[in-house]
């Protein structure tokens, strides 16, 4: 298993995430897409660390990203809860009050 | 005591401030403050006089200065006092007459609504006059010179409700300004040339030749212009007769005894600077004055006007005397004249107080009503007429001798002596005309005569004192060869450097210095001491006999015409109507000045006013108009360009903002799509 295959998997995962963000209207689903993109990045971190730099900097960074993603998910879900309580929906198209 | 001389002028200054501030609320309205101040001054002056007299040194000089005004360290104006023999005499004259006039005024000004202010003005005058006498530099004498002018202005216009008094004080002030301008120019020429202000320093500068020739003559004549104005010399004599609108004590103090003598004092004080040409101008100005004023006095009907013109004339005698080299004679006449002329003026005040009129043709026979006034008046008249035994004879005789000596030395100027002698006779004539019309004969206005009465003691005591001082023995004991004044006030050596050697004398030898007093002013050429002394003696003898002769003739004529009726003066006047009108109208000087100087000034000011209104104001208005145009132009530029630029920036911002805000949809998918699309485009650009 070489670096290129891992990069293909990561790219595929990134595209899945992007697709989910672009197509889904449900905020939770958009959040799931974001998680996919983060994990695609994690795979890249680990893969480049393993094959190119040979030190564990990439792995450590991946752990940070996971922690960050967890925090992000918590904050995002809290926002969605408040949004639902206020507007009665979690459709992302409905949240356009800050448009110019 | 001499060291404290500076206190003398300060006392009246203090009295001035007290009286002007709280005079009205003081007991007796503050007259005692002024009298005490001047009386103390008189006491100190007499003490100084006797101290100087005891030293008996013709060259005595107490001179003290200290730096007063430091101008940038380069030049220091010094203040100080100078007491020499002339100053000591002048101090006594000024404080003496001033004290007596103060006392006289208590009676004369009684009940005046501005009583305390009158005494305040008298005090400021005394301060200024004493400062003038004690000054030791051209700078300070000029300051006090202007101050006495101010005091004179205030006192002439004391009864400013009367239009004539208000006009007279303005006239006096303005005419004096003309002379003072010359004084200023004169002493600025000296200052510019020598760079110093003190008398002695300036004389030293002239001796060193820093200024000479025509410029020095001009400076001398310039300074003499000040004397022309203040001492009422031709052609600026016109203010003095009008100044008689002031209260009579003021006329006695300022316009007879002291201030008008300031010009004579000034000429005496700066005597060394005059060149022979300047002396000639001085002599002829004095001659014109003494003659013209005496002729006018012949026809005047107003008791004070007669005295005013006689003052002019006597000042002319002094100036002429100084001009022909009779330094001692001029200053002696100044001293004697101060006493008898003050007596005459105060006497006229007493008369006016009694009859409430100034017209001598409404008086007559007053001898019976006011014996003391009449007696003192006659004594002073004898003095001014030059009757032997009285002070006026002694001093006028010296002046005549100096004029004759000058004429003998320079025969082309003999006319000076002739006219002066003739005028001396006229003086006797018009003064006795005044006395006879006032005190003798039959009363011409019975109503006024009946109400006439002798004045109170505080008015006649000064008269008696002044009349006593009109005798000659105060100045020269009958047997003495020379009076003390002749010994104590010798003619100073000229500072002017001439081609011919100026005769020098060992200092401190009264005899030789006295001889110098009789020396002519024109370059003496070779030293000829014996010849000079002989000439002086001869001149003196001739002058004495001729002056007694003309005085007797004048008095005789006056008695003959006005007492015994040999000739009817009205018929004489009718016979020569032109001459009579000419004299009654005072040689038409006022009309001449009205036509030339006054109307000329008015026309000039109208022309300047027109110029100001049309040209200057036109220019100013044009500038304003151009300012308006320019600012409206700038306003347009501001509105169009500057505001346009500012608004343009705002519009562009608004327009671009409303364009860009369309991209801010708020839709998450749009943002993500643009993000992803952007990344794709960057990738494609980088890849290919």
Describe the structure.
The complex is a heterodimer of chains A (100) and B (688). By secondary structure, chain A is mainly alpha-helical. Chain A has a single domain, classed as Helix Hairpins (Orthogonal Bundle). Chain A contains 3 helices and no strands. In chain A, helix 1 (3-23) packs antiparallel against helix 2. The radius of gyration of chain A is 16 Å and the shape is elongated. The radius of gyration of chain B is 36 Å and the shape is elongated. In chain B, strand 1 (61-71) and strand 2 form a beta hairpin. The termini of chain B are far apart. Chain B has 688 residues and is mainly alpha-helical. In chain B, strands 1-2 form a two-stranded antiparallel sheet. Chain B contains 26 helices and 2 strands. Chain B has helices at residues 7-22, 31-55, 85-108, 115-134, 138-156, 163-194, 199-207, 213-230, 239-242, 248-257, 259-269, 276-299, 303-323, 327-355, 371-385, 391-409, 414-439, 446-451, 457-468, 484-488, 510-517, 529-562, 569-575, 577-584, 589-660, 668-687, and strands at 61-71, 75-84. The chains are: A mainly alpha (100), B mainly alpha (688). The interface between A and B is medium-sized, with 12 and 13 residues.
Q: What characteristics describe this protein?
A:
heterodimer; A: 100 residues; mainly alpha; Helix Hairpins; 3 helices; 79% helix; B: 688 residues; two-stranded antiparallel ribbon; 26 helices; 2 strands; 72% helix
**Helical content of chain A, roughly?**
over 70%
Overall average residue pLDDT of chain B: 84
Poorly predicted ranges of chain A: none
| Oligomer status | heterodimer
Largest sheet of chain B: 2 strands, antiparallel
Give the overall shape of chain A: elongated
Given the helix and strand composition of chain A, which structural class is it?
A: mainly alpha
Number of domains of chain A: 1
Beta-strand share of residues of chain A: under 5%
CATH C-level name of chain A: Mainly Alpha
| Radius of gyration of chain A, whole Å | 16 Å
